[in-house]
Specification:
511 residues, alpha+beta, 7-stranded mixed beta sheet
Length: 511
């Protein structure tokens, strides 16, 4: 491994640290859900004579929670209340209502606003300074019934004893006594996830215990960080930023987490785990007769890719995100210059966060020579656009390419040559002429990046690479000025599969 690899991969390790939520958040979450458990188990509770188990699920349980994109957002703490009661004696609606009654009393006791009911759960809203809310899901054990169902279908029985039945107001039997309730298995999933990283997890927990001169059991699981957990946090942040302006295509956390855990092979470094996971995670997506499948490892009947079959654009969005993540982190891992590292990851991690990661590594020298580092605010808005795709061709600079002339044309007006960033009238027809000194044969690509509310509402943010015609003399591209905002166009020359030249973005400003 050369020095550039060491620095780039070290910066990825630092990036993971900047994404970590404070240990105090985990401790507060731990105290909060235990407080709810104590309340439900008190003498005056409607559940006083019921055996119950209260536990977390989701990202807090798995150790993959990340800092919100905005400081004003709250963390989601998902909690399961498992009551040992018979479905023959209580409907889903009754259990949901009983839990709501107790949570309302709990909220009143501690001066909180009244909890909000949802189809499946209740939400406890904590004070703003707590910066999280708790979704509390009522459930009952269902391992025995699920075993019989799986056995009859010749399905895997792994984790079946952890299965639970949950409430859902949209379910056909919500208000009727029935053995048929919606099914879930958060404990089974958590056990599977831990098994996927167990060797590294136990090694690190033991090392922490030795350092603290404590027993291994005294080290809370949420204090142990593995490369798998950190890699998932980075991928979730990359996903959040990439789809910040296109939320309808956003891959779900359970899909990313499941595929990443399946692809993990006990890599000992975060960068190693991240790059390896990205290369392998799509190998665990199945194509069955009834469509795309990502099986829930704790319940083989559940398909995490169901939404892809209902809306194929979601599967296409996942492929687009995976290709983009592969390109981003492959480039970042190779870089030895911290400024270039920031510029590569800023669009889909966030410039402030990547800057904070770089600041952790004092030994890394930063240059100020990259185009993005010298860009003005308008240019930076385009360069940091999360939908601006990275170039995936290996770089081999053979020559140069430049957008020489940009012309705006409107009916009834003479053609107007304009400079980068100069305002032009909406509705104009645009022509861009470029010239390169790269020797033929080559391919030409144009990258158009739109920004602004109008382009977003029209789902026309673009950001990919469009092949252009290679004709003798000047290379030309025609576009339209449709959306108000700051946009860009760039010309790239690809020769023998290598990126031989790129012009740099030319700004198009439409008032």
């Amino acid at each position: 491994m050369n020095q550039r690899n060491v620095i780039g991969e070290g910066l990825i390790e630092d990036l993971a640290e900047t994404l970590q939520i404070p240990q105090s958040r985990y401790e507060a979450a731990d105290r909060s859900y235990r407080s709810v458990a104590d309340w439900l188990d008190r003498h005056a509770s409607v559940f006083a004579d019921v055996d119950l188990e209260v536990y977390t699920q989701g990202s807090f349980r798995l150790g993959t929670a990340i800092r919100p994109l905005s400081g004003g957002e709250h963390y989601d703490l998902d909690v399961v209340c498992e009551f040992d009661i018979s479905k023959a004696n209580r409907t889903q609606a009754q259990l949901h209502a009983d839990l709501g009654k107790e949570l309302k009393l709990y909220a009143a006791r501690y001066g909180m606003e009244e909890p909000s009911p949802w189809d499946r759960c209740w939400t406890l809203n904590y004070a703003d300074e707590a910066q999280f809310h708790m979704d509390v899901l009522p459930s009952v054990p269902d391992g025995q019934r699920q075993r019989l169902i799986r056995e009859s279908a010749s399905l895997s029985l792994e984790f079946v004893e952890d299965a639970i039945s949950i409430t859902d107001s949209q379910h056909r039997n919500y208000r009727r006594l029935s053995d048929d309730w919606p099914v879930s298995n958060p404990n089974g999933y958590a056990a599977w996830f831990l098994a996927r990283m167990r060797p590294v997890f136990e090694s690190r927990r033991k090392a922490m215990a030795i350092e603290a001169r404590a027993d291994v059991a005294d080290i809370p699981t949420y204090r142990v960080r593995t490369p798998l957990q950190s890699a998932i946090q980075i991928l979730k942040r990359h996903r959040d930023m990439r789809f910040a302006e296109e939320p309808e295509g956003r891959p779900t956390s359970i899909v990313i987490t499941t595929l990443a855990a399946r692809a993990y092979q006990q890599e000992s470094t975060i960068a190693g785990a991240l790059l390896s996971i990205l290369q392998r995670m799509d190998a665990y997506i199945e194509r069955r007769a009834d469509g795309w499948w990502i099986a829930n490892p704790s319940d083989p009947r559940e398909n995490f890719a169901d939404a892809w079959n209902d809306d194929p654009s979601k599967q296409e969005a996942f492929d687009d995100w995976l290709e983009t993540a592969r390109a981003d982190f492959a480039a970042a891992s190779r870089l030895g210059d911290a400024t270039e590292f920031v510029d590569v990851l800023a669009p889909r991690i966030g410039r402030d966060l990547v800057e904070a990661a770089v600041a952790r590594r004092r030994s890394v020298q930063r240059s100020t020579v990259t185009f993005a580092a010298r860009a003005n605010r308008a240019m930076r808005r385009v360069l940091d656009a999360p939908h601006r795709r990275p170039a995936t061709w290996p770089v081999y600079r053979e020559g140069s390419v430049e957008i020489l002339v940009a012309t705006a044309m409107r009916d009834g007006f003479r053609p107007h040559v304009f400079r980068s960033g100069e305002p032009i009238a909406r509705g104009s027809d645009l022509r861009f002429d470029a010239r390169t000194d790269v020797t033929r044969p080559f391919q030409v690509f144009w990258q158009v990046v739109n920004t602004g509310e109008a382009a977003r509402e029209a789902r026309d943010l673009r950001g990919g690479f469009d092949a252009g015609k290679v004709t003798p003399g000047v290379l030309s591209r025609n576009e339209g000025a449709e959306y108000p905002g700051t946009h860009s166009i760039e010309c790239l020359i690809v020769k023998d599969g290598l990126l031989a030249a790129r012009s740099g973005p030319f700004l198009v400003t439409i008032p």
